[in-house]
């Protein structure tokens, strides 16, 4: 009970001689230092609000304006053109200098609004994205110069938010035309004719009415898609979020920085908290479109930490707390609260390792039902909501649940060893993926914004809840964590964290429960059936990578997507509706848009390959088409988010649309996503080539389909994560992975000219 005594700053007893007051100076000191940290954070937030509020100007520019006005007036000139005199008429007599300061401030604010409006106009220009590489127009060159001038001062994380344009509502006619073009290769002649008629009827009747309501929302809301997307796609789902929604990220492929579990946990937790400090202080550099000065929306970073998803009967709710000084740790069925700050000071990595080791060494058994409590977050949402209301709304259960939900994040100390190791490295990678995707179904807290998993052999990974942010935001966090762990914090020669340990640290606090075992068992059975059905395959493709593809003057993403089309056609003997996630973070509060990768041009190319025709020209056409579709999606001219919002409006109005109902019920049998590498500067691939990220993956979207995630690593490798379901006999993740590898090699052979006899002879001479 040492920590309980330290929490009491003073005690008093009443005696016959009077009141005996005893002060705990150690506790008072800790209270003072903790309060000091809190006030520093408040002051920092106030400072950042001022800096963001005047961006793209700076607070010091106000002084420049005042001096300029005074200098002009000293020259016997009136720069206000009579406005200072007007101010004098309407304000009490407070001295001429005060009137000058009022006018200067108003002029300064007007200049800020003008600069911000100009930057917003500049960031609304997207024609640069459609220009060919190496053929930049004069207009774009001038535009780049102006953007650099207006955003030259070092911005904070959220500085660009008010300057980002709003997501535009595309014309309904254009969206319907693009939709019909996207389904043409998937439908028979009569089927396509029927959809054409449905689309025309929708446009001429209900469509324009729904479009007017949507435009009205776009004028009022910051983003006409994001709030509905978060609520109806994520939070209103009543099925399990494990596998169906959550996704995972992996550790380095070849390297484990230390084999000591507690040490790896210490550095990982420290790196995550250092990232949180950067987010809170807004010192994190704003993300940009790779290779450009164009900023991306950073709104998703706001709920990264101290956030949890709580279940409801009809819809879940995301809860976010301003700060948290502890994390929750799960180990062998027990839950612990681990304080990571002491007296306002972040514990050193060595101190966190020391505390983690205390948890690992704790011999106490879990309470009845405690070990499988996390299964409630893995099962259906409505039963979890009912159990939460009945058993977790008061008493010891509420206090312990609050510790989990208010924690900065969740940590699992897993008893298993994972990674590409042993006599079966391929099978072990697959088991590693399944472990991160669902674990044992009860040893993760799937409602937390993200849960970190540290394995017995020092390998780590994370599982992220999807509603609050998309994969690139979490990938940015995870890149920073891995790089900080390996290259900045580092380890001692014997594999422990660096730093000193204050031995007086109170031990981690064990959480206590009174758990309804029967309800937990029901959720676990649902989750276990889902987990057992998932088939995962992870493999690195090493034959070639981005470097070889770019030499052929082809977009790597277009190359990979066309290989996926070829692989799927070979696997299932047909084409399917294909989902590729694209970002819309060029706009304020933007999230994602769908690129419908299965195009007429792509299908024509695949058929030509299979029939043995000369198809290099068809490949170029298909790649250019894919790139154009991707650009349209990024610039707000996609198909699916617009149709989704029209559907939501129709539901609010209580009207039915056969066209929208059919469109939104179409299954995505091939769902794909690229995990971008965003912080290359953190990884020294030249001196440390083994520190290669495996990326991450997700479960299949359709029961009879595939989920494919890929990450382009360096110049010579592409890592793939393939998932499907055992319950559908016609899909197999290993078979599809082999088809992907074969398709990549076949595409390269299509684009690589056959060598002549002379060139082959020259190669032999060189050898």
UniProtKB/TrEMBL annotation:
<dbReference type="GO" id="GO:0004095">
    <property type="term" value="F:carnitine O-palmitoyltransferase activity"/>
</dbReference>
<keyword id="KW-0012">Acyltransferase</keyword>
<keyword id="KW-0472">Membrane</keyword>
<dbReference type="InterPro" id="IPR000542">
    <property type="entry name" value="Carn_acyl_trans"/>
</dbReference>
<dbReference type="GO" id="GO:0005741">
    <property type="term" value="C:mitochondrial outer membrane"/>
</dbReference>
<dbReference type="GO" id="GO:0006635">
    <property type="term" value="P:fatty acid beta-oxidation"/>
</dbReference>
<keyword id="KW-0276">Fatty acid metabolism</keyword>
<feature type="transmembrane region" description="Helical">
    <location>
        <begin position="54"/>
        <end position="77"/>
    </location>
</feature>
<comment type="pathway">
    <text>Lipid metabolism; fatty acid beta-oxidation.</text>
</comment>
<keyword id="KW-1133">Transmembrane helix</keyword>
<dbReference type="InterPro" id="IPR023213">
    <property type="entry name" value="CAT-like_dom_sf"/>
</dbReference>
<protein>
    <recommendedName>
        <fullName>carnitine O-palmitoyltransferase</fullName>
        <ecNumber>2.3.1.21</ecNumber>
    </recommendedName>
</protein>
<dbReference type="Pfam" id="PF16484">
    <property type="entry name" value="CPT_N"/>
</dbReference>
<feature type="domain" description="Carnitine O-palmitoyltransferase N-terminal">
    <location>
        <begin position="1"/>
        <end position="47"/>
    </location>
</feature>
<keyword id="KW-0813">Transport</keyword>
<dbReference type="GO" id="GO:0015909">
    <property type="term" value="P:long-chain fatty acid transport"/>
</dbReference>
<dbReference type="InterPro" id="IPR039551">
    <property type="entry name" value="Cho/carn_acyl_trans"/>
</dbReference>
<comment type="similarity">
    <text>Belongs to the carnitine/choline acetyltransferase family.</text>
</comment>
<keyword id="KW-0496">Mitochondrion</keyword>
<keyword id="KW-0443">Lipid metabolism</keyword>
<dbReference type="GO" id="GO:0009437">
    <property type="term" value="P:carnitine metabolic process"/>
</dbReference>
<dbReference type="InterPro" id="IPR042231">
    <property type="entry name" value="Cho/carn_acyl_trans_2"/>
</dbReference>
<dbReference type="Pfam" id="PF00755">
    <property type="entry name" value="Carn_acyltransf"/>
</dbReference>
<keyword id="KW-0808">Transferase</keyword>
<feature type="active site" description="Proton acceptor">
    <location>
        <position position="466"/>
    </location>
</feature>
<feature type="domain" description="Choline/carnitine acyltransferase">
    <location>
        <begin position="167"/>
        <end position="741"/>
    </location>
</feature>
<dbReference type="InterPro" id="IPR032476">
    <property type="entry name" value="CPT_N"/>
</dbReference>
<keyword id="KW-0812">Transmembrane</keyword>
């Amino acid at each position: 009970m040492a920590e309980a005594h330290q929490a009491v700053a003073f005690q008093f007893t009443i005696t016959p001689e009077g009141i005996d007051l005893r002060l705990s100076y150690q506790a008072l000191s800790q209270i003072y230092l903790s309060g000091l940290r809190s006030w520093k954070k408040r002051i920092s937030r106030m400072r950042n609000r001022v800096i963001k509020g005047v961006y793209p100007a700076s607070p010091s520019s106000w002084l420049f304006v005042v001096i300029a006005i005074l200098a002009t007036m000293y020259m016997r000139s009136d720069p206000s053109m009579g406005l200072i005199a007007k101010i004098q008429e309407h304000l009490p007599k407070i001295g001429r200098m005060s009137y000058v300061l009022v006018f200067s401030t108003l002029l300064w604010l007007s200049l800020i609004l003008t600069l911000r409006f100009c930057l917003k106009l500049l960031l609304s220009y997207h024609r640069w994205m459609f220009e060919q590489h190496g053929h930049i127009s004069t207009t774009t060159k001038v535009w780049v110069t102006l953007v650099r001038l207006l955003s030259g001062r070092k911005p904070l994380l959220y500085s660009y938010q008010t300057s980002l344009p709003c997501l535009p509502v595309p014309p309904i006619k254009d969206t319907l035309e693009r939709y019909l073009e996207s389904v043409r290769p998937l439908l028979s002649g009569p089927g396509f004719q029927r959809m054409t008629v449905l689309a025309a009827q929708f446009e001429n009747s209900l469509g324009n009415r729904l479009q007017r309501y949507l435009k009205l929302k776009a004028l009022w809301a910051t983003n006409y898609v994001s709030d509905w997307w978060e609520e109806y796609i994520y939070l209103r789902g009543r099925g399990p979020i494990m596998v169906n929604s959550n996704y995972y990220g992996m550790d380095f492929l070849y390297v484990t920085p230390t084999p000591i579990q507690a040490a790896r946990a210490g550095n990982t937790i420290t790196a995550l908290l250092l990232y949180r400090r950067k987010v809170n202080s807004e010192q994190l550099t704003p993300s940009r479109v790779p290779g450009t000065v164009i900023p991306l929306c950073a709104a998703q970073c706001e709920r990264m930490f101290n956030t949890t998803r709580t279940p409801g009967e009809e819809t879940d709710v995301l809860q976010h707390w301003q700060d948290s000084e502890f994390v929750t740790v799960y180990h062998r069925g027990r839950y612990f609260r681990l304080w990571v700050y002491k007296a306002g000071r972040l514990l050193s990595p060595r101190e966190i390792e020391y505390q983690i080791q205390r948890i690992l060494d704790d011999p106490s058994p879990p309470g009845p039902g405690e070990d499988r409590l996390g299964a409630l977050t893995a099962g259906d949402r409505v039963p979890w909501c009912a159990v939460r209301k009945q058993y977790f709304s008061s008493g010891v259960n509420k206090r312990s649940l609050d510790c989990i939900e208010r924690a900065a994040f969740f940590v699992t100390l897993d008893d298993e060893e994972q990674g590409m190791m042993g006599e079966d490295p391929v099978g072990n990678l697959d088991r590693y993926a399944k472990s991160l995707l669902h674990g044992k179904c009860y040893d993760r807290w799937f409602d937390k914004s993200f849960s970190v998993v540290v394995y017995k052999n020092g390998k780590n990974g994370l599982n992220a809840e999807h509603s609050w942010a998309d994969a690139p935001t979490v990938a940015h966090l995870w890149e920073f964590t891995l790089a900080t762990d390996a290259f900045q914090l580092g380890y001692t020669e014997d594999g422990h964290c660096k730093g000193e340990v204050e031995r007086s640290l109170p031990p981690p606090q064990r959480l206590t429960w009174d758990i309804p075992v029967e309800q937990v068992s029901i959720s676990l059975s649902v989750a276990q059936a889902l987990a057992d059905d998932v088939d995962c395959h992870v493999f690195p493709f090493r034959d070639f990578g981005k470097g070889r593809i770019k030499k052929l003057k082809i977009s790597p993403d277009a190359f990979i997507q066309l290989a996926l089309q070829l692989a799927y056609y070979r696997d299932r003997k047909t084409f399917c509706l294909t989902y590729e996630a694209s970002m819309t973070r060029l706009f304020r509060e933007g999230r994602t848009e769908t690129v419908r990768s299965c195009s007429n041009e792509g299908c024509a190319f695949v058929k030509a390959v299979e029939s043995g025709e000369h198809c290099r020209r068809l490949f170029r056409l298909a790649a250019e088409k894919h790139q154009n579709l991707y650009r349209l999606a990024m610039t707000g001219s996609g198909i699916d988010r617009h149709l989704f919002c029209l559907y939501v409006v129709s539901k609010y109005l209580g009207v039915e649309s056969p066209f929208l109902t059919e469109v939104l019920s179409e299954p995505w049998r091939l769902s794909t996503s690229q995990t971008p590498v965003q912080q290359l500067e953190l990884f020294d691939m030249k001196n440390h080539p083994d520190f290669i990220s495996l990326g991450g993956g997700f479960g299949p979207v359709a029961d009879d389909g595939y989920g494919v995630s890929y990450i382009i690593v360096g110049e010579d490798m592409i890592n793939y994560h393939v998932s499907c379901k055992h319950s559908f006999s016609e899909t197999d993740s290993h078979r599809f992975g082999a088809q992907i590898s074969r398709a990549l090699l076949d595409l390269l052979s299509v684009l690589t000219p056959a060598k002549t006899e002379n060139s082959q002879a020259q190669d032999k001479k060189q050898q």
